Amino acid sequence: MNLPSYLSLEGKKVLVTGIANDSSIAYGCAKAMRELGADLAVTYLNDKAKQYVQPLAESLGSDIFLPCDVTRAGELEAVYEEIDKRWGVLHSALHSMAFAPKQDLQGRLVDSSLAGFQVAMDVSCHSFVRMAKLAEPLMSDGGTLFTMTYLGATRAIPNYNLMGPVKAALESTTRYLALELGPAIRVHAISPGPLKTRAASGLADFDQLMAKVAARAPAGQLATIDDVGRYVAFLATDGGRILTGDTLFVDGGYHLAD
């Protein structure tokens, strides 16, 4: 059975950042959007990451494959320049990147360094603003922007530390971008439950957190990268055309629990 047009991404041009390996949330999103017909541009962090990301990009039939380290001058801009050159349009862009120095991430917030806080905010939050600015002229016919957040933005989660305030800023950024860029461009912050990704591996006692969430979530289980990907893909279609500006949970309902 053919999908109705409002659930199709056939011919839509989508940028996916943040794939590190086949356990990445961004990879789950890329797969789902590709299954709905999207053409993909995929980025990788650096030469070390390239060996893991390139086979995935090839399996997805990615049209564009470029490095993108937002701390390196010009790399993010080069991605959008290539998209403009090759496609001339962009319909969706996924921001799935976060970073904090290990000593700041694993220490108390009150002990975090100014430099660590600044780099965490730059990579994890302000880079989304930069992506939105670059995407805007390419989304003249409308589009959707996505970023990834976590429940620790609104609750004090043990061991989430520095990333809590940073993700809170990212969620606020989402609301303001939705206000400024609407109605043509929709903006979403997606909040999955804990997933065993490379980024999460830096958090202390993460396995215990996963077990707690799985036990207490109303759905009785953790979300997978495919669950997150399918939700993101739906929101990128016309089926999600009236939704914007919110933090949307994909955590089996755990955010409702005490």
Give the topology, please.
Blueprint: E1 13-16, H1 25-35, E2 39-44, H2 47-59, E3 64-67, H3 75-86, E4 92-95, H4 102-106, H5 114-135, E5 143-148, H6 163-181, E6 185-192, H7 206-216, H8 225-236, E7 247-250
Parallel strand pairs: 1-2, 1-4, 2-3, 4-5, 5-6, 6-7
Task: Give the gist of this structure.
The chain is of the alpha/beta class and 258 residues long. 41% of the residues lie in helices and 14% in strands.
Task: Note down, in words, how this protein is organized.
- With 258 residues, this protein is of the alpha/beta class.
- It has one domain: NAD(P)-binding Rossmann-like Domain (Rossmann fold, 3-Layer(aba) Sandwich).
- It has helices at 25-35, 47-59, 75-86, 102-106, 114-135, 163-181, 206-216, 225-236; strands at 13-16, 39-44, 64-67, 92-95, 143-148, 185-192, 247-250.
- Strands 3-2-1-4-5-6-7 form a seven-stranded parallel beta sheet, sandwiched between helices.
- Helix 1 crosses helix 8 (225-236) and helix 5 (114-135) runs parallel beside helix 6.
- The protein is globular and about 45 Å long.
- The model has no long low-confidence stretch (mean pLDDT 93).
Poorly predicted runs are none
In total, the number of strands is: 7
Individual helix count? 8
Structural class: alpha/beta
**CATH homology group:** NAD(P)-binding Rossmann-like Domain
Largest sheet: 7 strands, parallel
Features:
258 residues, alpha/beta, Rossmann fold, 7-stranded parallel beta sheet, 7 strands
